[in-house]
Every structure is written in C-alpha cells, then in structure tokens.
Amino acid sequence: MRIGLFATCLGDTLFPDAVKATAVLLARLGHEVVFPPEQTCCGQMHVNTGYQREPVPLVRNFAEQFGDPSLDAVVMPSGSCAGSVRHQHEIVAARYGDAALRARVAAVKAKTYELSELLVDVLGVTDVGAYFPHRVTYHPTCHSLRMLRVGDKPLRLLRAVEAIDLAELPEADTCCGFGGTFALKNAGTSAAMLRDKTDAVRSTGADVCTAGDSSCLMHIGGGLSRIEAGTRTLHLAQILASTRTAPHPLPQPEATR
Amino acid sequence: MSSPTGGGTFLGLPAVPSRPPYGTGNLRGDRAFPEAAREELGNDQLRRNLAKATRTIRGKRLAVTAELPDWEQLREAGAAIKTDTMNRLPELLEQLERKVTEHGGTVHWARDGVEANEIVTRLVQESGSDEVIKVKSMATQEIGLNEHLESRGITAHETDLAELIVQLAGDRPSHILVPAIHRNREEIRDIFRAGIPGVDPGLDAVPAHLAAAARAHLRKKFMTVPVAVSGANFGIAETGTLSVVESEGNGRMCLTLPRTLITVMGIEKVLPRYRDLEVFLQLLPRSSTGERMNPYTSMWTGVTPGDGPQEFHLVLLDNGRTAALADRIGREALNCIRCSACLNVCPVYERTGGHSYGSTYPGPIGAVLTPQLAGMDAAKNDPNSSLPYASSLCGACFDACPVKIDIPSLLVELRHQHTERSGTTAEKLVMRAAAAVMRRPALFTAAQRVTAAPGRLVAGRDEVVSRLPPPFDGWTDSRDLPAPPRQTFRSWLASEEGAATLREAAEEGRRDREGRAAGREDDDEEAR
Ligand code: SF4
User: Which of A150, A189, A198, A228 is the best mutation test for B, with the most CBs of B within 10 A?
Assistant: First the structure.
C-alpha cells in the first residue's frame, strides 16, 4: 500500500522519534511510505483556539499535499491531528473555503487515519512483530477515544507485543489536562488535572507511559519529569517499532528512578 | 417575542433584522474564569467534596444507562425531538398558550428577566401574600427572582433541601442538580443552627437529623403560604400540561397545597406531544441522579376546580433564548434538559466547582449556554468571553449528554465567534504569524531551524526546559518541556541515515515474512 505520512508540525519539530518509528513500522510491514515534502501543519491549534480564517491556507495545503490519488491512505501518529483533519477541516472549508477546497477536503478526510486505525482497520494487523520487554501503561487520549472512537485498537496492538508487561491505568479515560492552548489559558486547572493523571501513571509502577499522541505525551511527560517520577513517555509507534533485532532502548538510565 | 428565524447569523455577525436581545440576571460573573478558578482550586474541601460526589453520581449513571438496551436510540430520539422543537418553537409556544388558557390558566410572556420578575411580583402582590414557597428552579435563579421579590418585601422560601441550605447560608448554588455539593454535613449543621428559626441548638450532623430539622421548618411553610413559584422541566404544547420531576416531594407539596401557582418556564422547555415524555422521563432521571425513575413526577394542566391551586399562571421566559436560537450552530445548546450529567463527567468542573463559571449554569453546558443567553461583550474582559475557553475539549460531556449536544464543537464555535468579534488582538497577530509561517513550507523549515538552537541552549545539558517567559510560564509552572531535538523528522528522512533506516526496515520485514511463510510451509510439510 502507498501510504502518505503526515508528520504533524509538533512531531516533525519536537518529537521526530515518534514519526521515525511510524515510518519504520510501516516500511517493515511492507508498505511504501510517502512523505509529501511541502507538508506543514493541520491547523488544529488555530481552530481549537477560535481561529478559522487563519488556518484556511493550512487546510488547503494539507488537502493538496495528501490529495494525491496515488496515495491509498494518509496516516499520522496523532489522534488529535487526525481528529482535526476529519472533523474540523470541513468546518473551515465550509465557512471560508470554495467548492474546490470543500471537495478536496472531503476526499482526503475519507482516507485519513490515526496510526492504530490504519494498522487494525485498514491493514488488518494487530501483531506487528514488536518486542518490548518493559512495564507499560497506556493513556487513551481524548481525541482518539471520543472524536475518532479508536476504542481498544491501541490496546489490542500493545497486547500483541512480545514480552510487554501491560499495566492498566486507573481512570484511564480522564483527560490529562492538555487541551492545546487550554494548558496556557487555564494553566492552574490544567495542572490540577495533570497531577491526577501523573499520580495514576505512577500508581501503575510502569517504566513507560504510552499514548497515540505526542502532544498529550509532551504534557504528561512534562509533568512526570517535573516531579521526577522516573516514568518515561513513549509514543505507541515507538513501542510497536521496537523489535528483537532493533529493541527500543529506554531513554533514561534506571538510576534516575 | 422577536422572530427566531429573522436574525440568521452564521459568522456571529449581526444580520438584519437586528439580533434579539440578550438575557439579564445571573448570567455573568464578575471575574474571568481562570481568575475565579484559581481561588476555587485552592479550596481543598471543595475539591474533595466535588471529586467524591461527582464520582459517585458518575458510577450510578453509567450503571443505569448501560442496563437499557435502547439507551442510544433514546438519546437519538431525545435529540431529534428537541431539534424539531427548536425548529418550530414559535408555533409550539402559541399552541401551549392556547391549551393552558383553555384549561383555566393564564399565560404571560416575558422578554427578559426584568419583565419576568415584574410579572411574578405583581401576581404575588395581587394574591395579598408577602411570602412564597418555591420549587427548585433554574429559570428563577437565572433571573434572580428571590432577590427581586425580597427587594419588594416578599420572602421566598426555597423548599428543595439543597436549595434551602444554599439560601440559609446566603450562598450561591454550585451545581444544577446538587446545589450544595460544595458543602459537607458539618457545614450544613452550622448553617441550620444559624439559619432555621427555633431549631434545636444541639442539632448534630447526622443526615437524618438534618433532614428532620429542615422538614419541620418546611412543613410550617407548606401549610401556611398561599402562593408557590415553580419552574418546569417540560411544557407540553399538545395538551398544555406542565411537569416537574424531583426527588424529595417538597416540590409536589408546593404544586398542590397553595391557592396560587406561578410557573416560570424557559421557552425552550416546550415539547410537542404528550407522548414525548416517554423519552424524556427515561433520559432525565437516569442521566441526572442515576435513578431509573425519579421519586416524584408532577403534572398539571391548567386549573382543576376544587383540587389543587385554583389560580395558575405560566410565565414564558425568553431572556436570551431567542438570541441563542438565532445562532444556527449555537442553538443546539437550547436542547439541554438540565440533567447535569455533563457537569459530573467534566474534569474541569470537578476541579473548579460551579462558582467559577459565574452563572446559574455552570460546567460544560454553562460554558456554552451562558454566553449564548447573555452574550460575550466584545469589549475585552467580559467574563463570559472566557467561558468557551474553560475546557480542554476532552469530549466527556458529549458522550454523557442524553440529548447528544456536541458541546466541544459548540465551544469551538463560540471561541470562533469570540475571536471574530474582538478585533485585532495580540493573540490574533500571533495566530496569523504562525499561519503565515506554516503555510509556506520553506519558511516553516527555516523556523524549525532557527528555534531549535536557542531551544537547545535554554534547555542546557539535561535537555529539559523548566522555565519559560510569559505567556508560556503557565506551562513551566508545573511541567517541563523537552529540548528540541538536533534533527527534525524531515531532515532525518532526507539524510542518508534516514533513507538507510527505512531500507533496512523494509528488508527486515521482508525477511521476517519470508521466514514466517517458510515456517508455515515446514509446518504444512510436517502435518502431511
Ligand atoms: S448539556 Fe446535556 S448533559 Fe449537560 S445538562 Fe444539558 S442535557 Fe444534561
């Protein structure tokens, strides 16, 4: 399958390892990974903060970059960006775009997937041949859970990982408090939510907290780092890309725990 | 009432004819949400009570909604009936008026809270009483009826236990359904000791004793006060029937004992048909208290000679509802049946409590409904402008809502209306600049490059950023940020290393698959 990879602006700039892992995983599964080089950002931050005129060029650029009919599917290692493409681009296009943009947006939307959806629904795999001998807890991010309805797909993928020790996260479906600019505009409330999330993560005794979205992981990881919890954050793709021949090393030494 | 269809606004810009007026009353706080929340976040007692109470109600609700095989269809039906209602609200309201009048009631139309308060005051004065007993009602709280009556020398007695606690404490309710959710038993004992005339000074904090003290107090009022004021959960256009659902039975006392009954109902509470109750009397109790059925469902149609109140007045309250209706997208908020499920699942509400919202309507629906009813003044610092931002957009409210109001989308819509109306702000300039960079891939890559180096510098050797200047200090107050990596994804991909890594991964995968296929053949071989 020819799969267009959207790195997301955050993944491209701050968390390239998650995107690399996505590309490596798909290549290993025998698919052609295409990276349209002019891609930038889906405009989610703009729309969620109340701006819909400003991101029109971003929506247009995304549709142009990934509209290529030779791409069978478009994937991104982010539930919230996939949510933006699938739910917000058409709102922006309906309001401030033209008919051509609306048509393009609809076409791209139909083949856009978050990573676990692509793997389970489109490619039909749950066992991706991964190996990850560590204790892991999974946080289902709000947008993948309630906007995309990925359900237990990420967990099914994780359960199939060899040697993994999966610990259930208490109150898993509660928001970590990120919410994009919410974390800045309502920093105190966001921090209170984060504290409960990091407490829950710590209670699992996991080495790694994983999720399908680098932005939420940045938030949870930022909190864990501040309280020196010793639990690291890794994107789901990084666990799935880890194999016996190329295992993912844990980023921090055990000594800091 | 102004025409709800005339002011078709799409972009939040006033269309012709001009937008219907906004509502008045308790629909605007005195501080922006983040400021109010800061104070409440520091209140540990509040947070503990809220966490405990919302968690309990959440569990009960999940249990009783999961047991119905057609729960999702019920939600669909509820949403459809409400949407249909809003689409033909004027005709349904006129039908309701006709039916109520036919059955001996009198209908009054109130454009806003001020008018509604005046109407009720006049009606009470005409009855000759200087006291009223009250059924728990959001609408009368919204318009500040009690305070208004007080200013005219009329005492209103709340009869719902939690409302009574709030009233005696001189407090404001913090939850639609559990107004005293922010108080614990000991606090309630103290409030009763100080507020109920003639109460046993040795009253303790045992719930049954507290309830008994309230009961003795309220009984006297039920038996002597000749006028009651209520709200309504539903008003049936087809029959002119009004309905109140409650748990305690104190509402039933108010609705049946006095000579005069005055009901203040928001115009969005109308339902087309009697049989629509079938849907809502299942949705409401299960979503709100987590009960299969609420203990008391009262219904009355006009006046029945010799039975119950002999004078019935229905005050139909607009107070910004027509303004909300004129908003093609935002009008969905009017479908709300005030079950409070969205409050109980909201992680923001759970931590900040209801008072932070500054309105009769707190929580996720309050963050939508309050600005819809009372507007967001484009002048900066209108506390209502901060409400649509009081959400992480986690979507738990949408999942819980029995009439499937897409609250996160409405919040995003209101944020858009707000930015459209607020001219050129610093934030807008930043957003524009960000979009201008991101729309041009070459600029975007350049920006990635120039921010990475200073970012790495700030982070230092441990590769962690732990202090940032405003407006980003809110982040670093309690979270670190990783240093930008040496290489972006796109430069890695363009590098020899990137290309080689992907080639190797593809080859490894091929070998694996071939190995597995060979293994299968061997197995097959053996099987044969
Ligand atoms: S918005 Fe929905 S969940 Fe919230 S109070 Fe209204 S009906 Fe209940």
Answer: A189
CA distances from B166 to A66, B174, B179, B191 (A): 57, 9, 7, 9
Instruction: Return the pLDDT at A76.
Output: 98
Is A255 inside any structural domain?
A: no
Q: Is there an atom of ligand 1 within 6 Å of B396 CB?
A: no
Rg (CA), chain B: 29
DSSP structure class, residue B472 = T
Are B485 and A179 in contact (CB < 8 Å)?
no
**For the sheet containing B311-317, what is the strand order?**
B106-110, B311-317, B260-266, B227-230, B131-134, B155-158
Any residues with CB less than 8 A from the CB of B469 and at least 6 apart, and which?
none
For the segment A191-213, the average pLDDT, to the nearest whole number, is 97
CB-based contacts of A130, cutoff 8 Å, min separation 6:
A160, A161, A162, A239, A240, A241, A242, A243
> Does the CB atom of residue B405 touch ligand 1 within 6 A?
yes
> Between helices B33-41 and A187-203, what is the axis angle to 10°?
40
* E strand segments, A44-179: 73-76, 112-114, 135-138, 165-167
Of the pLDDT bands very low, low, confident and very high (cuts 50, 70, 90), residue B524 is low
- Calculate ∠ Cα B240-B73-B296, nearest 5°: 45
pLDDT digit string (tens) for A18-61? 999 999 999 999 999 999 999 999 999 999 999 999 999 999 99
Q: Judging by beta carbons within 10 Å of its beta carbon (0-12, 13-18, 19+), is residue B8 exposed, middle or buried?
A: exposed
Cβ(B400)–Cβ(B342) below 8 Å: yes
Which of B34, B399, B488 is facing A186, going by the closest CB pair?
A: B34
* Residue B247 amino acid letter: S
Of the listed ranges A54-63, B115-124, B432-441, the one predicted with least confidence: B432-441
The C-alpha atoms of residue A191 and residue A178 are separated, in whole angstroms, by 9
Query: Token match 């669909």: residue?
Result: B76
Inside any domain, residue A209: yes
Q: Report the C-alpha dihedral over residues B378, B384, B389, B395, rounded to 10 degrees.
A: -130
- Dihedral class, residue A111 (left if φ above 0, else alpha if ψ from -120 to 50, else beta): alpha
Give the closest of B41, B395, B448 to A146, CB-based. Answer: B395
Cβ neighbours of B155 (radius 10 Å): 14
Interface with chain B: mutation pick from A6, A51, A148, highest number of B CBs within 10 Å? A51
Q: Would you say residue A73 lies in a domain?
A: yes
pLDDT at residue B18 greater than cutoff 70: no
pLDDT tens by residue, A67-84: 999 999 999 999 999 999
Mean pLDDT of B182-205: 91
Flag whether residue A27 sits within 8 Å of chain B, measured between CB atoms: yes
* Ligand 1: centre distance to CA B200 (Å): 40
Angle, helices A99-109/A56-66, rounded to nearest 10 degrees: 60
Report the pLDDT averaged over residues B196-223: 94
Print the domain residue range for A20: 2-122
Q: Is the CB of B401 under 6 A from ligand 1?
A: yes
Is the per-residue pLDDT at B517 higher than 90? no
Domain count, chain A: 2
Find tokens 């079938």 and name the residue: B278
- Among A90, A122, A154, which residue terminates a domain? A122
CB atoms B394 and A45 under 8 Å: no
List, as ranges, residues 70-129 from A with C-beta within 8 Å of B.
Answer: 87-88, 95, 129
How far, in Å, from the CA of B375 to the mean position of ligand 1?
Answer: 20
* Domains of chain B with bracketed CATH: 68-323 (3.40.50.10420), 426-492 (no CATH)
- pLDDT at site B523: 67
Q: Does this model's pTM top 0.90?
A: yes
Closest among B100, B135, B101, B343 to B222, alpha carbons compared: B135
A74 — phi, psi (to 5°)? -125, 130
